[in-house]
Amino acid sequence: MKDPRQNFNLRGHEQAERVFGEALSSGRLHHAWLIAGPAGIGKATLAFHLARVLLGAETPDSPAARRVTAGTHGDLLEIARAVDEKRGRLRSEITAADVRPVQAFMRHTATEGGWRVVIVDGAEFLNRFAANALLKILEEPPPRSIIFLTTSSPGALLPTIRSRCRPLVLSPLSDAEMRFVLPDVRDDVLARAHGSPGRAMFLAQDKDGAIASFVTEILRGKRLDADMMALVDRVARETEGFALLCDLLGEGLAERARSDVGHGDLSHAALAAQQRSDLETLRRQTEGFNLDKAQAIRQAVELAAHA
Q1: Backbone angles phi, psi at 147, to 5 degrees
Q2: Cα→Cα distances 148→1, 167, 297, Å
Q3: N or C: the chain end with fewer CB closer than 10 Å?
Q4: How high is the mean pLDDT of the chain?
Q5: Residue 198 contacts residue 39 (beta carbons within 8 Å)
Q6: Residue range 273-298: average pLDDT?
Q7: How far is CA 25 from CA 21, 22, 29, 124, in A?
């Protein structure tokens, strides 16, 4: 999949486009929009699409579109988690220093005489100071300025930020839309992606299905043995192997909890929910502190074992 800044192939979010288009046509365009939906569903792609609408950059080979794609358009500013150069991964939060350029950007006259657009991608990662800095901007927006916030966790945002934004809630893509966007991805991967192209690409990293098979065996109660340790070491070495294994284990535990609730077994449902929560804590700690992933995988397997 393309970077959202470069992706002109928006699919599956026609209703959100229609709502925004009607507001723009009416001349009563709200100054802040909260684009919410599951991870990987296309929230940032939609934000850049709407930004191009405002900036007259919808035609891919137009000068304005090329500037948006290159990140050099003077009237478009993107705020997101920065890369931690020491660890080679995204930082855990968006800081006040990351948000600070928005204030200066909003004060300047639009370089091309139109709208000024800010995209805050992953607004749930705003720390307290960054959120308060952004809130001040939302409370007193300059004319002809728009802020798009994307989030997979609207509840993690300050209520005062949510209340100042008009929501655009995105739905999962249909099977046909998923196949159009990802024509080369296996059917079993698309089925597990729940209408999210980004999740499908993440799952597709398990190219031979070995991690998914491993997780299935663990969820069925199989304990680690000598034959499985080679896979544990392999997964630990892969860039996204540990994250993928935790994701699949977490999904399996969530399904276990739903099944237990359906059968009226609330105690086991609560246990599965707690196991999933503990797994997420293990993942955050392992990735945040760069701990031994092979050891963490063994802990994850123990966490997911049947009671």
Answers
A1: -120, 125
A2: 21, 10, 37
A3: C
A4: 93
A5: yes
A6: 93
A7: 6, 5, 8, 30
